[in-house]
Amino acid sequence: MREIFPNVYKIKNQFATQSIAPGVRVYDEKIIKQNSREFRIWNPEKSKLCAAIHNGLKHMPIKPGSNVLYLGAAQGTTASHISDIITTSGLLICIDVATKPFEKLLHVAEERENIIPLLADANNPDDYSEFIEEKVDVVYQDVAQKNQAEILIKNANMHLKKNGYALMAVKARSIDVAKKPEEIFKQEIETLKKAGLIIEEVVNLAPHEKDHVLILAKKVK
Ligand SMILES: C[S@@+](CC[C@H](N)C(=O)[O-])C[C@H]1O[C@@H](n2cnc3c(N)ncnc32)[C@H](O)[C@@H]1O
Asked: Which of 100, 116, 131, 150 is 20 to 30 A away from residue 159, measured at CA?
């Protein structure tokens, strides 16, 4: 076992996080016990952040102690691994607009004291300002919406600290089915750049996710 980023481990050809809620499975993830520690295998077919790590993401801005705003947390699959990485010294504010996945997310949050689940629309970042006392270190977004760059920019402007990072998963088909995915990725990147974000990495998520990229951008102003 090798630690490739703080609190992210490589076990043979798989990645894993050390569970902060031992004995509790969030999805159907495999669990490995070593000495008195429990590791949850992170599935790249179910988590775009893990797919990006598999595909060579170079810089991982989410670390132990990070405060993270997660837009589109759904039932908490990726959120649970982020919760492991940041540990209880960090905080993960999870936003989702849909009630069905949110019910599952509530169960995940019950077992993990560093998750704050909020049923809200990420189009309106002011709606959850009262829960974000200090600007966050990272905004992670996976909303699969046509206006997702706009959503990210609004949230980064309001809630991301200077020198903080944004990670945005782009699903080309959610934006325009008629355009080539490469054109859409370029368009989304340009929109983020125009808003003053510096693009640091663009990782294609194939074969785990077809026609998707994960963009890592830095807020410098
Ligand atoms: C692709 S799923 C996210 C999967 C999740 N990120 C994971 O890896 O476990 C997209 C989620 O974004 C949510 N969503 C879409 N539009 C949203 C919005 N405007 N505000 C908040 N959540 C939104 C959907 O309800 C859905 O749960």
From this structure: 100
For the chain, which domains are there? 43-219 (3.40.50.150)
Question: Where do we find the tokens 């993960």?
Answer: 92
pLDDT in tens, the chain (221 residues): 999 999 999 999 999 999 999 999 999 999 999 989 999 999 999 999 999 999 999 999 999 999 999 999 999 999 999 999 999 999 999 999 999 999 999 999 999 999 999 999 999 999 999 999 999 999 999 999 999 999 999 999 999 999 999 999 999 989 988 899 999 999 999 999 999 999 999 999 999 999 999 999 999 98
pTM for the predicted model, two decimal places? 0.97
Q: Can you tell me which atom of ligand 1 is nearest the CA of 79?
A: 9
Nearest-angstrom CA–CA distance, 148 and 142: 8
The pick from 142, 174, 212 for probing ligand 1's pocket by mutation, whose C-beta has the most ligand atoms within 8 angstroms, reads 142
Residue 114 CA to ligand 1 centre (angstroms):
20
Q: Which residues contact 45 (CB under 8 A, 6 or more apart)?
A: 51, 208
Find tokens 């990725």 and name the residue.
185
